[in-house]
């Protein structure tokens, strides 16, 4: 597991950020690499986050040493845009709504995975499939196939 990813999750937990991992890292945490026999590559870390000003403040505090560009995040950005990309050496996507799955929906069915002592809230396999099944991207179609294999046992 990528050390930067774990560092972000640890910081989010320390600062009480309301988040759920989605995207490629959620697929990894759900076991897609084990089932497919292939590494699931990605260039960024995706998080569905709660969009209150308090949570945005916590996100900014948690990430300020990891990605200084977080300072540019405005309190209303995640209410205005579905995804805000924080570019830089470490790219982070903060997502308010992913295919009709917002933070409140995500936490109803999330799973907690523990890696190196860090508890990580992860989008459920069912919800991951929902976020990927209508995508035009080939990697999302492949993810959907392997996630369905995991779900069916």
Which features does this protein show?
four-stranded mixed β-sheet; 153 residues; alpha+beta
CA(first)-CA(last) distance: 23 Å
* Count of helical stretches: 8
> Which class best fits the helix and strand makeup?
alpha+beta
Number of strands: 8
Morphology call: globular
Sheet with the most strands: spatial strand order: 1-2-4-3
How would you characterize the overall build of this protein?
The chain has 153 residues and is of the alpha+beta class. It has eight helices and eight strands; from the N terminus they run H-E-H-H-E-H-H-E-E-E-E-H-E-E-H-H. The strands form three sheets. A four-stranded mixed sheet has the order 1-2-4-3. The chain has a two-stranded antiparallel ribbon with strand order 5-6. Strands 7-8 form a two-stranded antiparallel ribbon. Strand 3 (83-86) and strand 4 form a beta hairpin. The longest helix is centred in the last third of the chain and has 15 residues, at 138-152. The radius of gyration is 15 Å and the shape is globular.
